[in-house]
Amino acid sequence: MPGPAVLFVCLGNICRSPLAEAAFREAAKKAGLDVTADSAGTGDWHVGTPPDRRAQAEALRHGIDISSYRARQVTPEDFRRFTHVLALDAKNLADLRRVAPADASAEVSLLLDLVPGMAGQSVADPYFGDEAGFAETWREVSLGAEALVRKLG
Ligand code: 4NP
Fold first, then answer.
1. pTM, whole model, 2 decimals?
2. In terms of CB atoms within 10 Å, which of 30, 68, 70, 134 comes out highest?
3. CATH, domain 5-152, list 3.40.30.10, 3.30.2350.10, 1.10.287.3510, 3.40.50.2300
């Protein structure tokens, strides 16, 4: 039986979902949990580009290099390849439900639903804000990533 395969999804796949992927890889590694992880966007504007430089800088502050990540758009096949598809915000979740094929096998949910006291909350989009927004994004995706590792471990 292959291990869990988790796809994190935001709008552009250059800010929030790459940070969620990085935080989850790190948390899984620390826990000795063997996982597959990736991220994608519901939109296609940034396909093929590396994460936003502010997201790269935030990851580096936590010792993680995400410069090799490349944005891609979510596909119907993702709902069969991954065991879990986690939306960063409520709009992403609604959009994912529209893309999901009838034979989807993945569990589709909101990342922060896993965090006690944060159910139903969205990870705010930091793209149009300042650097401080990326620190808050990191804090929130880390809480989600750690909760996910506890759930899967
Ligand atoms: P993300 O942030 O969804 O966290 O990657 C965004 C990145 C780009 C845009 C919006 C959100 N955009 O409009 O280009």
1. 0.98
2. 134
3. 3.40.50.2300
